[in-house]
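User: Before I run my own analysis I want an independent prediction to cross-check against. Here's the chain; please return only the structure tokens and, at the end, one sentence I can use as a sanity check.
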Amino acid sequence: MLDASVSNHFLNLTAFCLFGYFLLCLIRYRYNESLKIRKRDFDKILQQPEMVYQNQNPSAGSKLVFFGNGDGGHSVKELMHSASKVLWKGTFGTSFKTELKGGNAVMVKRLKGSCSSETEFRERVLEIGILLHENLLPLRAYCCYQNENFLVYDCMRMGSLAKHLHGKTSPKDSPLTWQVRCKIAFGVARAIHYLHTTGSNICHGNIRSSNVLLTDTLDARLSEFGIVRLLSPEHKPDLINGYRAPEVRNAHEVSQKSDVYSFGVLLLELLTGIKPVGTISPTTGVYLAEWVRTMIREKPILEVFDNELLLEYQADFEGQMVKLLELAICCTFEYPDRRPLMSAVLKRMRETCRLSSED
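Assistant: Structure tokens:
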């Protein structure tokens, strides 16, 4: 009886082990199949992403690929053959204004030195297309055509902050009052903070007043974010010296800390009304951040600020201006580790200017 009991126990144990082994194999098989499905789905997303309007074949190259619920059927030839106006020639390419069929005005950036591989470019541009924030100018579409890459954005009728600060040509231009400048600076800070919290290696890379576009209500829309990621390793454009952090030699060396520095310069530009380069001392190479430090050591602090701000002088404004000046100086410290995080910058601006947001 004992031998029979041991034999039955052994058989049961063997059967249980075989069943367990079979179950393990089944689970492993299903897992491998799911990986294959996920890989196929991922490849499909890269080729024809769900977020992209699919009324065209991206691999054909000549069609614009729209994000979200964009208009389909537009080609890059349509952009090139439409009457267009060059807006500016920047670090990463030429931007021009044109119209799509139907009369929709768009801003097109014709990139230079971007990824040589169309597949690589498409993968990276999709990473940019999913970044959405109310103070970012969203990427509407892209196109690869004849070894050139194009990005399409909404056209902001009010133009750039640089235009309003330095290029006023008409009294109809909206005045940049102190409250408006605070709102613009705060909006840009929110956009940068959003980018920095998206990932530890995500940064803007080219913050300057010409890349801050304005809505009809003078709200900030920060443009050109993420374009640094589209550059080929061989293409190393120089960034504008006045905005460039001391540790950065070319566009591939930007970081979140260098973004903080560039934002500090932008804040100084709003406070002083002075261009960061070319207007202070073109021959000696003195830039805005250095000039401000010299001024506050040698002159009364009010002489630093834009005369237009002093015309609307109020004691309450002076306190806010001085606090933001101190913040801008902290952002432009020479050593990156001494600069604050954008979260701290945003908090200080919110407290100083008594602004609110969902950040």
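Sanity check: The mean pLDDT is 78.
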